[in-house]
């Protein structure tokens, strides 16, 4: 079922979870172990992130280094298929531009279609750590907008091979990412919103926000989107604070701010257990306010830590 249909047929705020594929070499049971405790909250969908290859340095016996390309968390498509089979819940694979040329993307979409996966989250993907900025593949999509165009073309039966006639019409519901505090590469929020509108005009049917800790950022963002004619559901992304060092790392990695009231509370914590407690309580209050204000779905970035997500959901479900 399409995410938009889940939202349309609901009369209350829905729940969804984002999970990461396990590290290479780890069994899939580890993943189920994290998802099982969350099933009681009847998630409408579960997203699975996509992790492209990156370079690591491997030391040779002579002390010099080899630059080796590796993917630490493969398996997104297979996990989505297994997840739908096991839990009968819609899985939403993240599909990125980085590392894919358009032929790879088309083939990945065909795989997803054959597996009965109706939804995808279309993303540009981050730059590899070794690169100064995002570099598209030769003949690859250079941003999420391009990727959405390709998905929508397949939904219209237009494949890359122009000679392919009567090609099967796929029925993907494509979502996209959005950033209440603007994307790191964007010069300002207005510029980011202009490109966001183009993603929606190209066919993005729902949006999932970057994590935020100040609900007012989300409310203001939704208002701005509506003012410029972005009318699709905007799903808030929730990430509870788990460790003291995240106060410094999250703003840097995700281009977000931590509200003063939260940093004040975190400063009183003596260890990460206390941080987790403060983070859980903060997220519960965030969720309650978002639900009160009609958020269509609460999307939890579980980051493999289901116990804390469960503790939050228990208070608001
Ligand atoms: P885009 O929409 O392409 O935008 C990227 C930047 O380019 C923005 O600054 C935008 O304003 C600008 N821009 C857009 N179009 C144009 C244009 N035509 N001309 C000039 N500038 C333009 N990353 C992963 O690698 N794997 C994941 O699984 C993953 N999941 C995510 C899930 C969510 C909900 C979110 C919010 C992010 C996720 N990311 C993931 C991170 C994401 O890939 C990065 O934030 C990436 O840098 C941008 O992706 P995007 O799809 O938002 O890019």
Ions, cofactors and other bound molecules: flavin-adenine dinucleotide
Principal-axis shape equals globular
What is the strand arrangement across the widest sheet?
Answer: 1-2-5-6-7-8-9-10
Number of strands: 10
Largest sheet: 8 strands, parallel, barrel
**What is the gyration radius calculated from CA atoms?**
20 Å
Order of helices and strands: HEHEEEHEHEHEHEHEHHHEH
Mean pLDDT: 96
Alpha carbon gap, first and last residue: 22 Å
The DSSP helix count reads: 11
Query: Class by helix and strand content?
Result: alpha/beta
Number of domains: 1
* CATH fold label: TIM Barrel
Helix content: 25-40%
The first-level CATH class name: Alpha Beta
What percent of residues are in strands?
A: 15-25%
